[in-house]
Design goal:
- The chain is of the alpha+beta class and 156 residues long.
- Helices cover 22% and strands 26% of the residues.
- The strands form three sheets. It has a three-stranded mixed β-sheet, with no helix packed on it. Strands 3-4-5 form a three-stranded antiparallel β-sheet.
- The longest helix is centred in the middle third of the chain and has 20 residues.
- 1% of the residues are buried.
Length: 156
């Protein structure tokens, strides 16, 4: 299945302002219930057992991350916490309550160096993705048209 995208214009001030970029369009959501149903269909585990394992995995990952560990799920990739903070001129002036904006959970999919020796890293979840420009339907006009943020709209 392809990854759908639309073109959006950058409105943030700077050298990229006014330029256009691809923005991935989400095609729905895959929930724990959906995942458990698919795993149940693919193996001998019951759906309730799969959900229990996934929820325990979440709890274990949360404890590990909060302890400052990298959670390495091997072929799936690694999770770790990162801090977004404001800069200060002098380390003595830094205050967590004032300068830390947020703590974010980062994810890096598993990968390996390309066999082409071009230095590229081939990632498990993103390798060989197909991209397709998203079409959107305009029900009030019963037609497709070119959107202001990109994307193709079919005309009647």
């Amino acid at each position: 299945m392809p990854i759908h995208y639309t073109l959006q214009q950058n409105n943030f001030k700077g050298k990229e302002q006014g330029k256009w970029y691809a923005h991935a369009v989400k095609q729905g959501e895959l929930t724990i219930d959906d995942i458990a149903t698919q795993i149940e269909a693919a193996c001998s585990m019951r759906k309730s057992d799969v959900v229990a394992v996934l929820m325990e995995l979440k709890d274990i990952m949360e404890r590990g991350l909060k302890a400052g560990m990298v959670v390495n799920l091997e072929e799936m990739g690694k999770f770790y916490l990162s801090i977004k903070s404001e800069c200060v001129d002098d380390p003595k002036d830094f205050r967590v309550d004032k300068h830390v904006r947020e703590i974010v959970c980062k994810y890096t999919p598993d990968g390996h160096r390309s066999k082409l020796r071009d230095g590229r890293i081939v990632r498990s979840f993103t390798n060989n993705c197909e991209l397709v420009e998203q079409s959107q339907y305009s029900p009030d006009k019963h037609s497709y048209k070119q959107g202001t943020r990109g994307g193709t709209f079919r005309k009647e």
